Amino acid sequence: MRRRPSERFALVADLGGTKIAVARIGASGEITHRLQAATPTVGGKHVVDAVAHLFMQLPREAAGAVGVAVPGLARPDGTVWAPNLPGWTRMPLARMLEKRLRLPVILESDRNACVLGEAWLGRAQHCSDVVFVTVGTGIGAGIISRGHLLRGSGELAGCLGWLPVREKFLPAWKTIGCLEFHAAGPGIGRAATRAFGTSVTPERVVALARAGDARALRVLADAGSALGVALAAVVDILNPQIIVVGGGTAAAGNLLLAPARQTLCQWAQPLAGRQVRLVRSSLGSRAPLLGLAKICFDRFPQ
Length: 302
Description:
single chain, Nucleotidyltransferase, domain 5, alpha/beta
């Protein structure tokens, strides 16, 4: 079947600490193809190879650009710093993928891709002031203020995982940040392992909490409370209309968000705290993919 002349597509990838998802997306947001694979734990160029291999399995007809969301800093020169990927202090990802795919490559932080996706086709449509918080292997925030994406002077705006939510500094916070240490998936797993005396995954914690296990409920409540303290600071500084929470750990739903919402209301500026909506993403894992596609279509309109 021949494509219509007006059809345009973007090839996009959401690169995470544990998995890689790629998709082919049309200009109206329709996902025609989607693939997923585990992120190589060895890091380095093996991760680039895995991303390229997935892309090569997608149809590339009428694709105008490639977009990749990365879990860290996407520099303007096309290199990436990603603390959860071994060896990724200055990985030349854009150049390496352009050489293999023969298409222009756009890099973006996963947090920015997510907020753009939610603003385009998710819970934040028609909102001018939005914060998207990704809670997964790490924690980050994409920010739209008055309709514009906030990047910061060094492309580091939204590094929410580094917000302090405890008083006494611990050396572990230097590499992944205080909030991320306590509220991201691995942090929840560590807290559960201490509580149960045996290794427990974040997914298992959620399952146990849903079954009413008091220890699991307490672990998620503690993580949610830490998240709420950080969100209160976000509300005080940015005064958003809506905060959308996504990422793998957000699958815990109100087990995590209810204590976060309660703590936010306790700590935030009263008027701003009452005005903001705190919701779970309606797009789920599609949010960064759709956000990347929107970037590709905006940057390469023809």
